[in-house]
């Protein structure tokens, strides 16, 4: 289903506002746009658990950068992730609706979602409830593609998505307001303190929307969504030691489709994260973390048995690891992680009240020189239900020429069945853990004039893949083997202010027994972004395109591909006042995203918004 582009007055005004001043400014400075842009090296932490230059990592990792996240406070985590060519996000509607991540073809339970190291995958479904996670305080999002179980244990078969929060760098305060279509509003207020290594931060936010139509049915209703929350952070960062404590809470209500009628549910999530670091001399660094993540979901209508369904999930972790810099080029990290997951749930008369403990021990060696970067690791995980698993990873990046590097990455990973797969109404207590083996090879090339490009080929084979089978009576079963194989390409260019990037991912996800595609995995996805960024003005346009996907786990109709265009822009009036505008899905294209409850879900359509930030 597609609705032709019919811009409203608001959309037209925003489009003019975010394009006109930037085009003028670009014409005035075009003579300098061909020089190489000298920027600081991008640092990432997800691949090694410590800061490393992204160009040295012997794996493929991509970044959703701060300027993208800050451009639209309204943008949800599913919306932000849609710009990644390696990730297919299937959301059954707009704000607050169920969303799944298919990272390199793997499913949501095989993508580990973290926030500053805190595990956000729930104890029940094993997937993160990404529509209910607030992005107000996020600095950047790192997407590590490929298995990462050596460092993170279970759930990281397809990769890791980690949200890195902001740490105050100067004292100040701000207030932001944004208003958009469908009576959508978001407001944020915050204050920071930073002095002599000590910092403190507080945030409060509120989002409300009338929502959009969810289903491709006659007389379909809009599904409203509202949420509010706050967060606080305090810490100290010194050369020899560091400590911090983070707390965040986010809660609200979302309506959803229930066989053509609207139902609603309350949600609430809390994160507590206590971290510390001590440097023992110049060579040894000791790190510790205690964290807890609670994710609650309560239905406000009774099921057919007259009961109120609910899910109360809690994950607690204690992590201790050391990093020993043996020489200037070599280091060894080793540590242990204790995890307890607990769920109290009721779904269609089926009660789940269970917890599982696990203890992991890992060691990793890194070698870094001007021309070679290696990463070799081993992990032993002892799960009280499934016993002991031993997994490993070996990766190397080699600089064959000053501007050319190649890398290869071989690793194994695993995933234990979650409590929903074991004990729900569709559960199977006889499930085996998933086990995977992955191979990857890639090349990165820097060219003149700020251009860089690269290609990756990968193959990931999963044994005992857990999947829901049966079109009517779903039952979790182990598939004998599934494979995920494909390739990724990227091309980037960066001038002084003007930039452009394009990426493409091809993946074939299939059941090796039947040789049929797994559902909801389009084989092709491409993304293209072009923009201008300086201290005064900014403009960005992103195009994403997906091919069709199989839907045989739900019905026998192919989900068609689609094409989206998003635009955003800003204007800094002065150091204190910033105006910004965004248009998500500028063509208001409405397309099928999935099937359920007797009919097809469609996406949320266009959202045009405009906002202002006042900072002091």
UniProtKB/TrEMBL annotation:
Keywords: Cell outer membrane, Ion transport, Membrane, Signal, TonB box, Transmembrane, Transmembrane beta strand, Transport. Residues 54-160 form the TonB-dependent receptor plug domain. Residues 243-586 form the TonB-dependent receptor-like beta-barrel domain. A motif (TonB box) lies at residues 42-48. It is found in: Cell outer membrane. GO terms for cellular component: cell outer membrane. Coiled coil: none annotated. One of its GO terms (biological process) is monoatomic ion transport. The keyword Nucleotide-binding does not apply. The keyword Membrane applies. It holds the Pfam family Plug. It is a multi-pass membrane protein. Belongs to the TonB-dependent receptor family. This is Ligand-gated channel protein. The lineage of its organism: Bacteria, Pseudomonadati, Pseudomonadota, Gammaproteobacteria, Moraxellales.
């Amino acid at each position: 289903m597609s609705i032709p582009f019919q811009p409203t007055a608001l959309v037209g005004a925003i489009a003019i506002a975010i394009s006109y001043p930037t085009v003028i400014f670009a014409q005035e400075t075009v003579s300098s746009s061909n020089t190489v842009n000298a920027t600081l090296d991008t640092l990432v932490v997800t691949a090694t658990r410590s800061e490393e230059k992204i160009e040295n990592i012997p794996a493929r990792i991509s970044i959703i950068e701060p300027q993208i996240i800050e451009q639209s406070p309204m943008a949800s985590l599913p919306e932000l992730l849609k710009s990644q060519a390696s990730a297919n996000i299937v959301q059954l509607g707009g704000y607050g609706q169920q969303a799944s991540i298919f990272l390199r073809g793997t499913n949501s339970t095989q993508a580990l979602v973290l926030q500053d190291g805190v595990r956000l995958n729930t104890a029940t479904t094993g997937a993160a409830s990404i529509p209910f996670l607030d992005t107000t305080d996020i600095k950047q999002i790192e997407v590590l593609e490929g298995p990462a179980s050596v460092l993170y244990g279970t759930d990281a078969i397809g990769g890791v998505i980690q949200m890195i929060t902001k740490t105050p760098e100067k004292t100040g305060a701000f207030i932001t307001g944004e208003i958009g279509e469908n009576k959508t509003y978001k407001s944020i207020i915050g204050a920071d303190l930073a002095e002599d290594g000590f910092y403190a931060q507080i945030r409060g936010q509120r989002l409300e929307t009338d929502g959009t139509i969810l289903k491709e049915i006659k007389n379909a209703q809009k599904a409203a969504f509202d949420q509010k929350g706050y967060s606080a952070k305090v810490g100290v960062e010194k050369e020899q030691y560091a400590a911090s404590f983070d707390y965040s809470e986010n809660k609200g209500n979302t309506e959803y489709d229930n066989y053509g009628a609207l139902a609603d549910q309350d949600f609430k999530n809390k994160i507590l994260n206590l971290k510390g670091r001590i440097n023992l001399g110049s060579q040894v660094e000791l790190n510790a973390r205690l964290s807890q993540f609670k994710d609650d979901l309560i239905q406000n209508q009774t099921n057919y048995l007259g009961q109120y369904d609910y899910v109360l999930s809690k994950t607690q972790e204690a992590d201790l690891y050391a990093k020993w810099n043996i020489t200037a080029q070599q280091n060894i990290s080793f540590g242990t992680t204790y995890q307890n997951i607990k769920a109290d749930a009721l779904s269609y008369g089926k009660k789940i009240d269970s917890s599982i403990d696990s203890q992991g021990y890992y060691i990793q060696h890194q070698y870094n020189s001007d021309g070679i970067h290696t990463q070799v690791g081993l992990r032993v995980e002892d799960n009280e239900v499934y016993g002991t698993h031993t997994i490993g990873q070996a990766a190397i990046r080699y600089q064959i020429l000053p501007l050319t590097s190649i890398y290869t990455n071989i690793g194994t990973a695993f995933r234990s069945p979650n409590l929903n797969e074991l004990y729900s109404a569709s559960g199977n207590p006889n499930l085996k853990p998933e086990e995977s083996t992955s191979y990857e090879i890639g090349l990165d090339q820097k060219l003149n004039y700020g251009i860089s490009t690269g290609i990756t080929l990968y193959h990931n084979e999963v044994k005992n893949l857990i999947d829901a089978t049966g079109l009517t009576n779903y039952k979790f079963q182990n598939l004998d083997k599934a494979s995920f194989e494909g390739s990724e390409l990227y091309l980037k260019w960066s001038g002084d202010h003007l930039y452009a990037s394009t990426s493409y991912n091809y993946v074939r996800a299939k059941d090796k027994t039947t040789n049929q595609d797994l559902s909801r995995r389009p084989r092709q996805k491409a993304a293209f972004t072009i923009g201008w960024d300086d201290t005064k003005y900014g403009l960005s346009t992103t195009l994403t395109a997906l091919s069709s996907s199989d839907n045989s786990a739900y019905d026998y109709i192919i989900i068609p591909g689609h094409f989206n265009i998003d635009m955003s822009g800003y204007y800094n009036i002065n150091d204190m006042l910033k105006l910004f505008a965004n248009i998500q899905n500028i063509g208001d294209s409405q397309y099928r995203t999935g099937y359920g409850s007797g009919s097809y879900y469609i996406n949320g359509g266009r959202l045009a918004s405009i906002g202002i930030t006042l900072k002091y």
